[in-house]
TrEMBL record:
This protein's name: NAD(P)-binding protein
Keywords, sorted A to Z: Oxidoreductase
Family of this protein: Belongs to the short-chain dehydrogenases/reductases (SDR) family.
Organism: Rhizophagus irregularis
InterPro entries: NAD(P)-bd_dom_sf, SDR_fam
Pfam families listed in its UniProt record: adh_short
């Protein structure tokens, strides 16, 4: 891998918004080494086999199952123990899930909450020092801070508009044992992620070390029906998402949603606000 390439870690890259972001990233003239952190390596290999990868970029696929803390630790360890040292310039936290029925992980936690929030919390804490170091090294060459991108949702907000019922984080029911609603738990994970985002931003600001600056963004790619989030939904919901909602005025296309992710991850315009 060329040391001149910025290293981008992208979760959930084999479908939906992640795959669209990947397609747009490889159209950039800036050279990237893209690490696709995915649960299903085989499916990802099939997905990217149809792409033409320009020579300035390189791609690798790495196993990351966000429903397993062991997998998260293994993935992070694999990055941190490489020789020569691997810079981590951009971390895009895109993958998410919605479970139609209550389920638990091997860590005995509710699956949606662990996948969408707790595993990302762990991953960032494991990689944060390396991301800071990468920012310091990059700033010796150009003005570009390392970035962490939280792909969030407006569903983290209190109920409004079409989102009549907002999130309701109940500490005593994080495991779903006192009642489970799939969309409510999804909204709760997005709220938890936003709370983590604000706290992380506060801690990074308090460090006040410009050489190790990390830019973090929580973004709303919009409501994109053509993703895999509805894969466990009833048939009528899948049909609605696939054939009806894409034509609604309040939805976005995968291309539009992917463009929001890529802009937050790579645009030099965002360095002005740092």
């Amino acid at each position: 891998m060329s040391q001149e390439r910025k290293v981008i870690i992208l979760t959930g890259a084999n479908s939906g918004l992640g795959f669209e972001a990947l397609k747009q990233l490889i159209q950039h003239s800036t050279p990237y080494h893209l690490i696709l952190a995915v649960r299903n390596v085989t499916e990802t290999e099939k997905a990217i086999s149809a792409l033409t990868i320009p020579s300035q970029h390189s791609i690798e696929i790495s196993k990351l199952d966000l429903s397993s803390f062991t997998s998260v630790k293994s993935f992070a360890q694999g990055l941190l123990t490489r020789d020569p040292i691997l810079p981590l310039n951009i971390l895009i936290l895109n993958a998410a899930t919605v479970k139609s029925k209550l389920s638990t992980t091997e860590d005995n936690l509710e699956t949606t909450f662990q996948t969408n929030h707790l595993s990302y919390f762990l991953l960032i804490n494991l990689l944060l020092d390396r991301i800071k170091w990468s920012s310091e090294q990059q700033n010796k060459l150009e003005s570009f801070n390392s970035r962490i991108i939280f792909v969030n949702s407006s569903l983290h907000k209190p109920g409004e508009g079409h989102n009549k019922i907002g999130p309701k984080l109940e500490i005593e029911n994080l495991d779903g044992s006192k009642g489970y609603d799939s969309m409510l738990f999804y909204k709760n994970t997005k709220l938890a992620q936003m709370l983590f985002f604000y706290q992380l931003n506060k801690l990074l600001e308090e460090e006040k070390d410009e050489k190790k600056k990390i830019s973090i963004f929580a973004i709303e790619p919009g409501f994109v029906p053509q993703t895999e989030l509805a894969r466990e939904s009833p048939s009528y919901v899948k049909l609605l998402m696939k054939y009806i909602l894409p034509f609604a005025s309040f939805t976005r296309t995968p291309e539009q949603g992917g463009a929001v992710i890529v802009y937050a991850a790579t645009s030099p315009e965002l360095e002005i606000a740092i």
